[in-house]
């Protein structure tokens, strides 16, 4: 589960039931309040809050999280062909647990290019997923996962 509305005060109460349900808890670093995404902050997330991983567009934070043994999801914002090319160069040699490609509609349209440029990656379509048809299409096009903040689509 990607946690987007968390802070250092409510995180324990959110992570524990997720683990009780045998699910993994990933914290969205940019959306967490009262937290700094440095090495010590990431250690705190892992050791005190017991999160399984983090989601971020911040490569430095993801590399630090990887070095601490946390799972990592890189947020790739696909807004134009230049962003795709730039991401390919940035991601060479990097390893993440997955790559969330946003917005989902662009992710779906560019899936073949993404698979060529990022082979063997766990791809997640996300962002503006508001209809079941978008989810169905993402899976048909080869995405491994889709994320949405709309609970009616979970």
UniProtKB/TrEMBL annotation:
SUPFAM superfamilies: GlpP-like (SSF110391). It comes from the Bacteria. Signal peptide: none annotated. One of its GO terms (biological process) is regulation of DNA-templated transcription. This is Glycerol uptake operon antiterminator regulatory protein. It comes from Schleiferilactobacillus perolens DSM 12744. The lineage of its organism: Bacteria, Bacillati, Bacillota, Bacilli, Lactobacillales.
